[in-house]
Amino acid sequence: MKEIPLTKGYKAIVDDEDFERLSGWKWHAMNAARTRVYAATSRIKNGVRVHMTMHRMLMAPLLAAGMEVDHINGDGLDNRRCNLRICTRAENARNNRTPCTNRSGFKGVSFYKRRGVWRSHITVNGKFHHLGYFSTAENAHAAYCEAAKRLHGEFARVS
Fold first, then answer.
1. Please, where are the H alpha helices in the chain?
2. Which residues contact 11 (CB under 8 A, 6 or more apart)?
């Protein structure tokens, strides 16, 4: 495992066998969302600047049309092959972190003001599934965790 320096003081982690090939590129830290940072490089192609992320470059030979690369541990700078997997967009979304707008502190849990209780819910294949009402946020989260493991399998992220 080796580190490749990026801009803004970030470092990307790569496997030893990929280090030599990747260190020949100039990499920068790319903010993809409020809390996500990826290693990327850019070049001019047909007069347009094109960004290529390190994880997609590593997995390019395995990528089929419409597929994405997922970081298993959620760290966009950990580009070791053991942390990368090919998946669909839906599978990748299942592995998302708790949104920063979440006020309960638990993924899949919200406060239902009308009844004064916590409710648990999960989305599967674009469909919203209500899991029940609970007296505490912890109990609602436990219901979400059980459903996520059952419905999302290896892509379940409960925090």
1. 16-23, 54-59, 89-94, 137-152
2. 3, 4, 5, 77
What is the pairing mode between strands 28-31 and 37-45?
Answer: antiparallel
Q: What is the CA radius of gyration of the chain?
A: 19
pTM as predicted: 0.81
Tens digits of residue pLDDT in 58-111? 999 888 989 999 999 989 999 999 999 999 999 998 888 888 788 899 999 999
* Other Cβ atoms closer than 10 A to 100: 8
Structural domains in the chain, sorted by start: 2-87 (3.90.75), 97-155 (3.30.730.10)
